[in-house]
Amino acid sequence: MSQGIVVKIWNVKAGSRSRSASKQISDSIAYIENPEKLGRPLQLGNETQLGNELKYVMNELKTVEGLYVGCRHISDIKNATEEMMQVKRFFGKLDGRVATHGVISLDVTESDSKNAGKLMLLLSDVMKDVFPDNQVVYAVHTNTENLHIHFIINTVGLNGVKIHMDKKFMREVLEPAVNKYAEKYGFTPNEIWKKERTKDPMTYPERKVFLRKKIDHAIEQTDDFDAFIAYLRHEGLTVNVGRHISLQNADMTKAIRTGSLGENYTVDAIRERLACKYNPFIRGKAGTYYEEIMPEAMAQITPRKMKKYKDMTAVEKAEAVRLLKLNRNPWQEAYRDNWQMQKMGDELKQLGYVYRLTRFYSNGTDNTADAMKEIVRRKKEIVAERKELRALLRKYKPITDIYEEMKKHMVKAYLYDVYGKEAYEEEFQMYQKLSERLKVSFGKDVEEVADFLAETKGEIAYLTGQEKELSAQYVAIKKYASTRDIQNLSDDYSFFNAIGHSQATYEAKEYGIYASNLKFIVAADNPDILIRVMTTPDMDGDKPTVTTSIAVLDKDGIVQKEASSKGKTTKEFNKDIYEIQSEYGIKKCEVTQKNIPKNARKI
After folding, report:
1. Helix (H) / strand (E) containing 466
2. Would you call 142 helix, strand, or coil by DSSP?
3. How far is CA 48 from CA 18, 33, 81, 199, 597, in A?
4. What is the mean pLDDT of residues 418-434?
5. Which of 110, 165, 173, 111 is nearest to 141 (CA)?
6. What is the CA radius of gyration of the chain?
7. Is 321:312 a contact under the CB 8 Å cutoff?
8. Sequence-distant (≥ 6) Cβ neighbours of residue 592 within 8 angstroms
9. pLDDT of residue 515
10. Is 185 strand, coil or helix?
11. Which of 20, 233, 417, 443 could form a disulfide with 278 if both were Cys (CB 3.0 to 4.6 A apart)?
12. What are the pLDDT digits (tens) for 374-411?
């Protein structure tokens, strides 16, 4: 069968530069004159290697004493090596790929020596089209069954650009040019190249799915490797078998190795699937990595609930008024007490939880770093185990796919079989056919496949759930380890609580109580200051509200800094409070009415 014209190329690479150029040239000429060395990479300098290739191409015994030797952009072909090196030196590009050596061969039916001249013209036209700025030396060799022409291209062009030829360049540029001039000079073009430039009707991902299905079906229908290969060929695929299996059909531009289709489609995997197709399912088992440690239950906190004033009894109202006269707000006190008790309970509960987590995962060392490392280790084991389970699902996917298809017809098949619904006869027959495929091709029944799927997916879900819980435990420990202790955290809130603006605002809205209040705050960490806080009823437009004013006083009762909630949002006022707290280093504090200088009470 005629194959048409063929082109092949390879790069000539530079090697050692330790020897002189002339020594390299003489050595390489002697080397390259041995035809058995053609195309092998040489560990020589670039000038040497170039001379070697040119000497081989222009071997007079093969070119009928120079009759079929030609060149482009070379003034003296006998000095071609030096002229090419001059261009390389001029542009300073002496390393890497020195030259490209190629061969164009005619079909054996067209290899008469009388075609040598036309082959040279073909080569010259191809070089003009594809490499117009590069020096080229070429020669027809007439000593083989296939008439062919060798060509050497200087990789550095007269314009200083270094050429690069990859598979895409060959497919999209060089091969079309060779085919174009083959037709011009009456030679048989390469039909495979034409075919490769025809658009594949499938995308690459679609092609992979198509080939996977072909292989899966072939495994269903056969029981040994030779029969498997024969079945694929019977299905119209071109199959090449060696270390790899490559498949190609009439619509494909090039063959695809089965190993690129996934781990189930390597040669070894296919052989195993054929050998084990009737074996029972391999089952995976998920381990237990998560320890269920729950926060300990705390003593039940009963909130102290204050009635609205209008709902109080006469005695309760009298008591509330008495406390107000003593500069105490019972609603405020109840709210603060409830909030503090609840916060204390929550913090103690969280602290105990983190302590138990840390102690367990650190193996009793109480070291948070050790505990977090252990959780990370367990999560890695979960990932590895889940990967194994998912690999099992992929391994048996050709079988479970049949079951998933059966599920689509299951209900209607049941209605036909049990209740005689004739409209569903087709679905019943399809269900029966798929069931038969499971039994005959893999020795499995529906229940066995369903059980395997449910169990394996359940194990994966169990591992995923454990991973989620371990992550939550890790975060709890990390949050505790990276923050200050619980007492310091509470201190930050104590100053805001002592100011009491948020509580006063809440009570005004919730209970309708707009009481006036004057109090003083002593900071344990800074005895040189006193904070005066006054809360009074106020109006926000047409709505009643409360306003809180803060003043930082020195030992003499002189105001050092002030802040007020009037005209501000709660967020803005809280920012003012935080700035005062930070500026004066206020941590632990308490509200007091004792030992207050008289002038501190002056507003």
Report:
1. helix 446-482
2. coil
3. 12, 13, 9, 44, 103
4. 92
5. 111
6. 45
7. no
8. 520, 521, 522
9. 72
10. coil
11. 443
12. 999 999 999 999 999 999 999 999 999 999 999 999 99
